[in-house]
Amino acid sequence: MKNIKIGNRLIGTNQKPFVIAEMSGNHNQSLDRALAIVDAAADAGADAIKLQTYTAETMTIRGALTIEDDQSLWKGEELFDLYKKAYTPWEWHQAIFDRAAERGMLAFSSPFDATAVDFLETLDVPAYKIASFENTDHPLLIKVAQTGKPVIMSTGVSSISDIDESVRVLRANGCKELVLLKCTSTYPATPATSNILTVPHLNQLFDDILVGISDHTMGVGVPIAAVALGATVIEKHFTLSRADGGVDSAFSLEPAELKSLCIESERAALALGKVSYGVQKAEENSKQFKRSIYVTKNVAVGEPLTEHNTRIIRPGFGLEPKHYEKILGRTAREAITAGTPLDWAAI
Q1: Which of 34, 142, 188, 307 could bond to 27 as cystine, CB 3.0-4.6 Å?
Q2: Does the pLDDT of residue 167 top 80, yes or no?
Q3: How far is CA 18 from each of CA 164, 170, 179, 210, rounded to the nearest angstrom?
Q4: Averaged pLDDT, 258-283
Q5: What is the pTM of this model?
């Protein structure tokens, strides 16, 4: 059994999945909208709200890249300008974190450089999230690990050796509580590229580390399936309405969908249970609805039992159906009234 604690939440095996609502840039540069996203996530049942802490200047430099990928939601965007549009102003963080606390949720963030870590430490965040594109940034990993806080790290665009090396860096620098998230870093991702069988494989490779999923597909099917494969943490982008637009809105859940994810992922986790055969205690009252052998017409003493005066029916108070061929042709030791469940003593 593996468990860690983030804030007041116990996360791990035999716990309900820990659901993180990723705000990202879906606030559309409005603090009021950001706070409304927090409220909507709380209403939906999410355990945490997550931000991204960077500025365009800490992410890139102007002119470094214009996105030309025809499959990208951001085709034609200059990277620096995209981050200008998407970033969450640092002066908003305290208000957002305070609102999350008021609503009973945890709040933390993904830092993208050392200055973001220093800033988040002033807010006493309970954990850190490492994004897929930063998971081989060893100086950042070292900085985060040295805070001693739990770390959740996505594993997109990474080989096993990349992941193993990053885990070793985190461990060597003081990270004791770690979660790895299977992630396909395309936006949106598709179920066909999600490869969630990686979840149990990560659990085998890193048997002392919790595993979850950071999912960019549409809908909730992929993360719920991941829970059935052992995922204990789910991260999904979240917005008030995809129709409102925003840098990440196209692959973000809306409130009703997030609520469904919170409910159904918990049901999936509860349903795992253990390997179980036989009659469970919960099934005891249902045993009566199995079939058994009944006398369906009055049978006199010495009269043979036939297909005309016996049948296999519900309920299950008579002999089991597997004995039916054995009882045919045998004679009654006593008169048997129609509607009587047959037992060995009567024949």
Answers
A1: 34
A2: yes
A3: 24, 22, 11, 11
A4: 95
A5: 0.90
pLDDT tens digit sequence for 74-91: 788 888 988 888 899 999
Residues with Cβ within 8 Å of 229's Cβ and at least 6 positions away in sequence, in order, are 196, 197, 199, 200
With respect to CATH, is domain 281-346 assigned 1.10.10.10? no
Q: What is the pLDDT of residue 67?
A: 85
Res 71: pLDDT: 76
Q: What CATH superfamily is the domain 12-272?
A: Aldolase class I (3.20.20.70)
Count other Cβ atoms within 10 Å, centred on residue 195: 12
Residue spans in the chain of domains classed CATH 3.90.1210.10: 281-346
Burial 125-164 (b: 16+ CB within 10 A, else e): bbbbbbbbebbbbeebbbbbbebebbbbbbbbebeeeebe
Neighbours of 101 (CB within 10 A): 13
pLDDT at 332: 98
> Which element (helix H / strand E) includes 181?
strand 178-183
Block residue for tokens 């969908």 = 257
Portions of the chain given CATH number 3.20.20.70: 12-272
Residue in the block written with tokens 């470094």: 64
Q: Is 74 exposed, middle or buried (0-12, 13-18, 19+ CB in 10 A)?
A: middle
